[in-house]
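Researcher: Quick sanity check before group meeting.
Model: Go ahead. Protein one:
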Amino acid sequence: MAKPCRDLTAILRCRGFPARVRLGSGAPRLRHAAATEAIRQAGGRTGWRPIARGTLLPALHGIPAARAATRRDAPGTGDEALERSDGAIAMLGFGPFSLDLRRQELRCGDTIVHVEPQVFDLLVHLIRHRDRVVSKDELLDAIWHGRIVSEAALSSRINAARKAIGDDGESQRLIRTVHKRGFRFVGDVTEMPDAEAAGEATPPPESAAQPTPHDAPPLRPARGGRPSIVVLPFASPGAEADAAYFSYGLTEDIVRMLARFRWLDVLSRHSGAPFRDREVDPREIGTALGVRYIVQGSVWRLGRRARITADLVCAETARQLWSEAFDFSLDDLLSVQRSMAEQIAATIEPELARLEREAAVRRPPRHFDAWDFYQRGLFHLWGFTVPGMEQAEAMFRRAIEVDPGFARAHGGLSYVHLQSAILRPAADRAALLEAALVEARIAVSLDAEDSMNLCVLGRAHTFLRDYPEAIARLEQAVRINPSFAQGWYALGFTFIFCGREEEAIACIERATDLSPRDPHLASFHAMRALAHFFLDDFDSAAELARQGARVPNAKFWPHAVLAAALGLLGRMEEAARAVAELLRLHPAYSIEAARGDFFFCPDHPCVERFIEGLRRAGVPDHSPAAG
């Protein structure tokens, strides 16, 4: 019989189990039976459905959606005892280091040691439980709050924690690996009381009996490091039953879709439940949950139609950062629920990425950690200039120095090499593409579930003309995260040069629908125009190229496609204007340069047709700047 999923414990945990379910490591039939019994004990109906060849997923019908299933759910565990004592402990000291629990800072003497929030949380958890071995499963629960992540991610955080406190994997002076069991902190620790907390009055019993949003323990304050976000339950003011069910499911789907963007820390749906139908200041929510951003919204029923409003709010300032409304028919509620969740998640992600890049640029360098260096790298990368690539490369390398296991930094460095292969002289191209492939493979080896890393690896294979491998990696990226607009665009880009133009158009249209304000929107339009050009649909190509040229940050490429299409259409006055604008943006552009731009494309009659269109439009054979 087919075997259960490799990590059934994690799957059951994510579906709301109130306690850990140990399935053991026996034969598949025994593990299947153990999982079935666990489902029955939770009050659900058994049943399994295939999700991949040889793999079964428990259906989990009827299991109540309980609170987040971390160790906090089991009474009497170490975490519960620690939660009771947190108010009396302000600092944990060991050797020259100290962990400030209120400020969430690691210090060596008087110097702040910058670590990512997850590394800080990992150190705190290990030190609090230093009297025993902490298993990998427990760390995954405590640090990632039920999200399914690879063991490579945990290993990366362990290595970063050791490095931050002057330890390493060989000596293991402070963080010791216990083979096949987990980790243990073995240093001498001093617990320092919190004078401020000690002076606080004990709350009266009646206030403790009234649950409020503050009952949830703060995860961490909204500060530097990887951004965290919570999706509050979408309101359904009309109170119709189906609207209420829809808003409940929509909230859950948005959480799930956002969680696929692995650079975000996304809190579980249950984290926002205490704030349902309450008017609460976003800053209060941010403090209670330790998040930087909040997604909130509502579902309004209007007969057989409905409207969803969604807002992105800064939890630190209560400022509204983004808002959108979506109108749809209720004819196919489940299909609409999924598509709306994908749309909202895909629209929010680039907005958050932009905000994080801008925040990193404003932050003083002395406060930088690996995440800040990474964000600064992205800021310089998206300018697509040679000086910008040099600065981006320096930032990504700094991020890797701080955290060698930071997969995204390796992915960013790979992308720099790919773009440099386009921008730099052809003589440098082979070495740059090889370097890009190496870094992309490292990124995927560190985190094979990050769609961005897979996308960069796929693009590296595209530029090396290994189209089958490129398509496999890019399809994997959008399968992991269907809301990933860049993945759909990269897949469409590759299809164009494989003679699969119709599929390319569909993929790039999907990218445009998912992210209509994407910073790469001009490229989306230009590549869709090129796909129509290769299909000899020059009118559509010209129209789409014009759309790309109108985007405020558009580079020269949409103008090149426009000029080629108009040249073959014989609309010479318009073609002349397009060429003039093309040469204004790229003074060195020529027929020779255009051929170089297709270095990743094998000899292709469509490329020759494109070159002919440029020549008819009036693009010179050689660079005017060189002359």
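Researcher: Fine. The other one?
Model: Protein two, sequence then structure:
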Amino acid sequence: MTDERAEESTQRGDGRRKHRASRKKRAFLWITLLILLVAAVIGAKPGYHWLKARRAEQFAAEGGELFKQGKWNEAAEKYRAALQLNPLGYPGLEGAARLASRADRPEAAYLWEQVFKSPQCTDADRQEYAALLLKLKRLDVAGKIIDQLLKANPDTKTLTLASRYAEQTGESGKALEFAKVAMNRAPDDDAARSRMAELLAASPDSTQQAEARRILWELVGKEGPNKRLALQVLARAPELSTDEQTRILRSLEGLASPIVEDVLLAADFRIKLQLGDADRIYDETIARFGKGDTTTLLQLARWLNAHRQSERVLTLLPIERATENNQLIMVHLDALALLQRWSDIDKLLARSDLTFDPEVLESFRARSAQGQDSATDAEFHWNRALSAAGNDPFRLRFVANFAEQTRTTAVALKAYEQLARFPEHAAFAYQGIERVGGKTGASATQRAAAEKLLALTPTDPNSTAQLLYLDLLLGSDVEANLAKANDLVKRFPARLAFRITAALGYLRQHDAGSALAQFSGPSNAPPIEWSKTPPSWRAVYAAALFANEQPEKAREIIATIPEGSLNAEEKTLIAPITEAK
């Protein structure tokens, strides 16, 4: 009995142990399943995002292929789908940004900013972003990105961007240096050569202009992206011969895919060469582009205003159409101003639906008041424009430029002086002060600005030469300044600007022969085309001719100098010639 109970007890114990083990096993299985379920729930979201990201990359890749094929609208749809799935995905952002830049869309800047913030951002992306910022005049951000690119063994594209940035900030010497470095690194790079030619073409020095034309005509003879830019730079060159104008026109007409600028330039040359009735050319151009998008209309309207076809602008852009875009309103206002319709301007500026920045609105009001000979009202609105610009350098640049264009020199000088407080805009501001000072005959103002500009760019020979010229013009420390001018001539014998400064120094020392000798230049220097040189250079040359007993030649040169283009000291320099008539 005892044994049976013992066996029964053992069996019951084994059963209980098996039951407990079974329960433990079941519990373990459930816990494992629960863990797997939780993991699945947690992992489902990243997995879903991964799938979305992969799909977004596929859309971006498809958009890239469509973009290469020139199917921009279809590409835009693919990029939009990619960004809807993954708003911060690099492939979608980068592709959409490039497309927006090519299409000149306003959202391009925002898209590139997002690309720039991405850890996958490349130097090529930074270059594209910087180029767009330069185009939009957002120089503060552009400068920081370009500085970053320059620190990492910059390629020719970065050096070209640095050159454009320096030019826009007023540092022309530095702009030329960056362009030279780019050309030295890649002498066969057409983009680098095009940039160098662009800078040389803007120089008043005939030697540099001749070199620019040589490079540009070589680029025009090649098919590629730089051909169009070369034609545009050549078209802006002063005193083009009839043969050159005809050659440019033929090249423009031969472009495979002409854009608006090409057609407008070609129309310019047809009008200059009298290859058709001007009114018919205007009407044909309007018919071709008059129903275009805002950018096209803006280019067309500005071109018409430049040709003083303001009535055509008002027909092209009636007030209802113009008020859809601030840039179009400004062109409409310019057309009214050219027609001196000041009451219409006042009526338009009084509209409550205008969204101009206050300094823009006040500048236009000041211009209207000046047109109506209301000096008190004009001063009131100019002061409000300066106040509204405040401490914003880009708004100050607008007011300074607007005032300079409307020949309100006192306001322009004040705006440039306020702008000079910003280090990244100081060189641009001092160049403006120097330029405006020259127009008003204020040599002391010019000299003060030139001195500050040299302090900012001490290694720039152009800045050095300009200060030397003004000091010699004022008769200051002639011997020492002439020695410095001669040093520049030895270093840069082909630079007419520097030889002009030395010639002025010799005139101050009454050394007429040495003064005139400066205009011979080196043996390989091209002949000087005096009609293309600044009026101040012609004044120095005329004075040198007169001092060497060549009064008739001196008077011929003086006859080409536009009235009001010399400052007081330059007028004094040529006074003996005009008085000897």
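Researcher: One line on it for the slide.
Model: Residues 1-21, 24-44 have pLDDT under 50 and may be disordered.
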